[in-house]
Design goal:
Two copies of one chain form a homodimer. Chain A is α/β, with parallel strands linked by helices. The first copy, chain A, has one domain: UDP-N-acetylmuramoyl-L-alanine:D-glutamate ligase, CATH 3.40.1190.20. The first copy, chain A, is built from eleven helices and 13 strands. Chain A has helices spanning about 30-35, 55-60, 125-135, 145-150, 155-160, 170-180, 185-190, 240-255, 260-275, 285, 290-305, and strands at about 1-5, 10-15, 20-25, 40-50, 65-70, 80-85, 90-95, 115-120, 140-145, 165-170, 195-200, 205-210, 225. The two termini of chain A are about 35 Å apart.
Chain lengths: ~300, ~300
């Protein structure tokens, strides 16, 4: 089945202990699309500027991503500059040139009306709500957000959260959103805000999905934890979270029914895709990846965690 | 089979957001012994002072722990005071009265000479080495250490590490010991110092065991990760690491052979015992625990991580 992602397609200028890259393609919708494209049909709604060439677009289309929703606006493409220190856990933003992204007003092409799944990548919560309301027929809505919106757009975000089935955030965001330093308590408070499930990403320690009681036909309310791969050399963590979301949502969208088993396997595929993303700069690794490698790593993730 | 732990039996005065406790029994050997006692026969070598009463000792003996190696010295028992802030991740030491522990010179009773397994809890590395060399016949040696010894007794610790089969430390200690901020790289460097395996404890994110190539008959060198339980209310994290070690080593000692399967299950039992320890103050929870509860939580840990 098809999945639509609404988010940013951007340029990134990155510096990590392993090197530098100038103006390479990035953005949440790019990472999500490339990652999900290994599992299902992906459609993208985003805005780019006049400096976004046909060659840049081919990064997406060569993976089969449907870019009819990619709006071309007058001006320059969103450009983010960031630097990672030695432990590569946190990016230090050097500059954020929003450019055409500043006035992004997502339009859903008519051809996308039959989309089955929706992922609201990290954009202003007000825009997330608008998009979600334009897609009443989707089976499941995934969403992301960030500290900035939790701080300055809390009311708008509360509206969005009522419209999101599965929220994917990291530990710090979950704790900030809930105002609670205990992660399981924070997760429960977030679930009271609307989502049926919340996936909390722990970086190198994996991710945990917490469920609302009775959601997805689950008998018990126990969380489920997927590992991350202990990776010697993280070259560039940019996009790892969006790749996790792409693997998670993409796998779900590839299955006819959303069972607890599908959800658990989706958590593993999320971790797998995140682990590939960080091995090289930007989306480089995703461009050379095969489904066979993905399933091979899925088996490795299983052997990392399963007793038998 | 039997396991001997050499470490501290102490009094703790604790403050956490959930309350305070004055001079309750604690210490690495206490937590380890109580935890391991659910799996196998435990013997303890430690020193206490004149303020350590028969009632205190019954905390150990009522769980079947063999206390013939508990030396009574003139003076007061080691007394540690600590306080935990809101997120309960790190203890702030208020006082450390070493008392009789300052001149601890571990003596192994003759009756302990046939011990099968040895755990060197966190004491001066020089003493760990002495003890290990007095027990040449043990099948497997586990060990712990801390930042203090990594800083001020690095050479002595290097000697200890040559004599330890499985080292159990936390993320920060592993990175400090190896001088490397990448955890998998740090683990590999620690393995080059002597141990066949290193268990790195990640607190609420679980623990990972890394292996030397070919150790324990493992074909591949992949690490194995066990979860921690997402616990709403951590009342007191004191002793969680020693309880992990007790479950891990105790389970290993309970099995006739050390197979990869036993090691993986031991990682889970370690996490299980750590998760009980933090539910109540000091060793309170361990004193009321049953093996049935332990195995029930083992199944929960499995369901938290296993796809099927």
């Amino acid at each position: 089945m098809s999945i639509l992602v609404v988010g940013s397609v951007a340029f990134d200028t990155l510096k990590t202990p392993y090197g530098v890259r100038e103006k390479i393609i990035g953005g949440s919708a790019t990472y999500f699309s490339l990652s999900a494209s290994f599992f299902t049909d992906v459609r993208v709604v985003a805005v780019v500027g006049e400096d976004f060439t046909a060659e840049h677009e081919r990064v997406l289309t060569s993976r089969g991503v449907d870019t009819r929703g990619l709006e071309r606006a007058k001006g320059l493409t969103f450009h983010w500059g960031g630097e990672y220190g030695d432990n590569l856990n946190e990016a230090k933003t050097k500059f954020t040139d929003l450019n055409v992204f500043e006035n992004f007003n997502p339009q859903i092409p008519q051809e996308y009306a039959d989309t089955d799944y929706l992922f609201l990548a990290n954009i202003q919560p007000g825009l997330q709500t608008q998009v979600r309301d334009k897609m009443p027929r989707v089976k499941l809505v995934g969403g992301d957000t960030m500290n900035l919106w939790i701080n300055i757009k809390r009311d708008e975000l509360a509206e969005t959260l009522k419209r999101v089935d599965v929220l994917l955030i990291n530990d710090g965001e979950a704790k900030m959103l809930a105002g609670d330093q205990s992660l399981p308590r924070a997760a429960r408070k977030v679930l009271e805000m609307g989502p049926k499930a919340v996936v909390v990403k722990h970086g190198e320690y994996g991710a945990t999905i917490f469920f609302c009681r009775g959601a997805f036909g689950l008998e018990a309310q126990h969380p489920f934890r997927a590992p991350a791969l202990p990776i010697d050399e993280v070259h560039d963590p940019t996009g790892a979270g969006d790749c996790f979301a792409g693997g998670f949502m993409g796998y779900i969208a590839s299955k006819p029914e959303l069972t607890p088993l599908v959800l658990k396997r989706a958590m593993f595929y999320g971790g797998v895709m995140g682990s590939f993303a960080v091995e090289r700069f930007g989306p480089e690794r995703l461009q050379s990846l095969t489904r066979e490698e993905i399933d091979c790593r899925f088996d490795l993730f299983r052997s990392l965690t399963h007793i038998h």
